[in-house]
Write a structure and sequence with these properties.
The complex is a heterodimer. By secondary structure, chain A is α/β, with parallel strands linked by helices. Chain A has 12 helices and 15 strands. The radius of gyration of chain A is 20 Å and the shape is globular. Classes of the chains: A alpha/beta, B alpha/beta.
């Protein structure tokens, strides 16, 4: 392992990408993730890569499509309204089976919303753009985890030839924490499908157009066989103090960290509370919630949104226990004491 | 092979022997052939990546026999940017129509040109949306009837705007190295167009190169092929004048020759 260094989240995410062998970044400025393109605009030229400040998020995602189509590791980053624009290129990446990593440092909405941390893109991440497809969505709760997941993201993208979204919030992007970068060299993947010039072989075509309905149906079936594999192999979830828990909190990202603090306060008062923290938001750990639901009095889902992940939590719980919700939005971050009060109130009911 | 067997017509190597879906009298086929001939002439088929658009030439990935990428509507220059930034050693062309390039893709083409991305853009301008059934394009002439300008394109009373001249627009930018417009309306025009396309491809390593073809759409114009060419010659050329608007290499060569003399 390398040495421990103190880094800002956005810059650590960018550095992790470079160390994962990504030498191409295409992006457009938007708060609160500007440190990612700023870092890349210097760093990538040092490692023989390329950085382009695109004319728009739409163009940036299509530049990623082009770079991925020739078989190179490539990424973009943005924040909520910008990610909406990137959905175009990313749907084409999914349809054409191109590996791309996109970082979404979420801010509040709808519309222009605000620039403070939020988790209101859960739908946009897990129910993405047009057509039947999925992103693999991973949600870090610490800068160290962001670094590790960022490096994993490129492997997941290459392995499944699919876009991977690293879903963070403004807190992950902006705060500083010590990180250690893994030093394992980037893995090699077969990219014989890439458009690298047809010397010594038939031409390759990167395409998402299937005009014959039967062909398009087969293509969708093919994609979903692949997604079945992702669901089988890639679910990641943390169960925190769940062994004896009578109440389960459900949260991801920054909110999960706040929940852990709240759990400490609650346990000090004798309340047996634990946390289920999905790390992959798609594929979602439905089975963990199903298992947990039989053991707890209720689940309290906590988000920095009006309640988005709660839909998946309910799908996992399947009415085996009540599922309650507590959310703050618009850049308002829930304080541990608010969560403590919610749990106490629900237990008293 | 005796003299009587001399081939007078052969397929360019870079063109697939696939029947195209283009309508009778459409000039996309001619444009495809010119692009394929240029790739052959430079001997770069095995390191060429073509990018096709959304529109009538959406299936061009079937017709060119080199690696091909299908882009989303208007984004081919952005996709080409990704290709060339990753692999500057490749030859990369985009092939786009007027709706794709001059309407939805206006931002992408302007900025790719402004960054002087080393790509060759082939722009087929027939002043109408073909694939979707004959709607008004950004290049539709004033007064021209289309399915969305049924009384004729009216920039005054209906606020439908004026035809956009892409070569002239790009010619305001510092970046591009080669900008030309050529028609495909007669054999002589096609002969000249062949030279223009080859020039564009040969200058690609220097930067952004752009060739606009003035073509026809007999089907959506509601004309017979010959009539369509005559109409284009009479009406389109005055709005979209033919010529090489910029050739940085030729200008540089001329300047250095003048200096020596």
């Amino acid at each position: 392992m390398g040495e421990k260094i103190l880094m800002k989240g956005s810059e650590a995410i960018a550095e992790a990408a470079v160390r994962a062998g990504c030498k191409l970044f295409f992006g457009y400025p938007i708060t609160p993730q500007n440190e990612v393109p700023e870092y890349m605009s210097k760093r990538l030229f040092e490692v023989g890569g390329q950085f382009v400040q695109a004319e728009s998020e739409v163009a940036a995602s299509n530049m990623c499509y082009g770079a991925a189509a020739v078989g190179h590791r490539v990424m973009t980053s943005s924040s909520s309204p910008g990610v909406t624009l990137k959905q175009e290129g990313l749907s084409y990446c999914a349809g054409s089976e191109l590996p791309v990593v996109v970082v979404n440092v979420m801010r509040g909405g709808p519309g222009l919303g605000g620039i403070q941390p939020a988790q209101s893109d859960y739908f946009q991440a897990t129910r993405p753009g047009h057509g039947d497809f999925r992103y693999i969505v991973i949600a870090p709760a610490t800068i160290q985890e962001a670094v590790d997941l960022m490096m994993d993201a490129f492997d997941l993208a290459d392995r499944y030839r699919n876009p991977v979204m690293v879903l963070a919030d403004g807190l992950i992007g902006q705060m500083m924490e010590p990180v250690v970068f893994r030093e394992d060299p980037p893995k090699e993947y077969d990219k014989s499908w890439a458009c690298t010039g047809c010397a010594g072989r038939e031409k390759n075509i990167v395409n998402s157009l299937y005009l014959d309905p039967k062909d398009l149906e087969d293509h969708n079936f093919h994609l979903f066989r692949k997604y079945d594999e992702v669901e089988k192999n890639e679910i990641r979830v943390e169960e925190y103090l769940m062994e004896d828990a009578e109440v389960a909190l459900a949260a991801y990202g920054t909110t999960a960290r706040i929940c852990k603090t709240a759990i400490g306060l609650l346990r000090a008062q004798g309340f047996k509370v634990g946390l289920v923290r999905p790390i992959t938001l798609w594929p979602f750990p439905y089975r963990t919630f199903r298992k947990v639901a039989d053991r707890v009095r209720f689940v309290l889902d906590v988000e920095m949104s009006m309640g988005q992940m709660i839909q998946d939590v309910r799908l996992g719980v399947v009415e085996r226990c009540p599922v309650h919700f507590y959310g703050r939005v618009g850049g308002m971050v829930p304080a541990p004491v608010e969560i403590v009060q919610q749990v106490q109130r629900l237990l008293a009911e | 092979m005796d003299a009587n067997d001399t081939a007078v017509f052969t397929y360019p190597r870079s063109l697939s022997r696939t029947p195209t879906h283009y309508c009778p009298g459409c000039l996309h086929g001619v444009a495809h052939r010119l692009v394929a001939e240029a790739i052959d002439a430079l001997g770069v088929r095995e390191k060429t990546v073509g990018i096709c658009p959304v529109g009538c030439s959406v299936l061009a990935y079937k017709y060119f026999d080199c690696d091909m990428i299908e882009a989303s509507h208007g984004r081919a220059p952005a996709v080409a940017t990704g290709v060339k930034r990753a692999r500057p050693d490749l030859v990369c062309f985009t092939y786009q129509g007027d709706g794709d390039l001059a309407s939805i893709g206006m931002a992408e083409i302007i900025h790719a040109a402004n960054r002087n991305e080393p790509i060759t853009v082939i722009f087929y301008n027939n002043a109408i949306y073909g694939m979707t059934g004959g709607q008004m394009a950004p290049t539709t002439l004033v007064g021209m009837k289309t399915s969305t300008s049924p009384t004729g394109r009216d920039p005054i009373d209906r606020g439908a705007g004026y035809p956009i001249r892409m070569v002239e627009l790009l010619n305001t930018l510092e970046g591009p190295v080669y900008l030309a417009r050529q028609s495909l309306l007669s054999s002589a025009d096609i002969f000249r167009a062949r030279r223009v396309v080859q020039r564009a491809f040969s200058l690609q390593s220097k930067g952004f190169t752009f060739v606009e073809f003035v073509g026809t759409c007999p089907t959506n114009w509601g004309m017979a092929p010959v009539e369509a060419r005559e109409w284009a010659q009479k009406r389109m050329i005055e709005v979209f004048p033919i010529g090489v608007f910029r050739d940085r290499e030729a200008e540089a060569a001329k300047a250095s020759a003048a200096k020596e003399a």
